[in-house]
Amino acid sequence: MDERPPPDPAKMLAAWREWESGETLAGRTMSTLKTGGMRDLLELAASDPVLSPAVEADLGGLLGTWTEWEVGQTTPADVLTRLHSDGAPAVLGALIEAAEAAAGDIGGDRP
Predict the structure, then answer these.
(1) For the chain, what is the mean pLDDT?
(2) What are the residues whose beta carbons fall under 8 Å from the beta carbon of 60, sequence distance 6 or more?
(3) Structural domain spans, the chain
């Protein structure tokens, strides 16, 4: 039984920003992203017909880079650097915007 909470792109983007600012080591950041569901979010973004074209990133490439880390082919620092340059923070930002828009659609017109 999987009792993990759903992925939270805002929490993951905050962890990402801590790594960028030097507050958190790459290994800790990758651990946070993994337990937070980064793979799930990348897969969601790649399969979403509305979100995928709106994100200016190679989602398949990001997922491939992530997988390289999961199977031990690259270090946390290297994978974070590659994910960063390939647009992972923009993907997280787009997912946050999509979630906020969906939340507004759910009850936005009710009195």
Answers:
(1) 84
(2) 46
(3) 16-102
Determine contact, residues 90/3, Cβ cutoff 8 Å.
Answer: no
Q: Is 94 exposed, middle or buried (0-12, 13-18, 19+ CB in 10 A)?
A: buried
Sequence-distant (≥ 6) Cβ neighbours of residue 98 within 8 angstroms: 48, 50, 51
Dist CA 2 CA 59 (whole Å): 26
- For 37-72, the pLDDT digits (tens) are 999 888 887 887 666 665 667 788 888 999 999 999
Residue 4 to residues 16, 34, 48, 107, Cα–Cα distance (Å): 20, 12, 22, 27
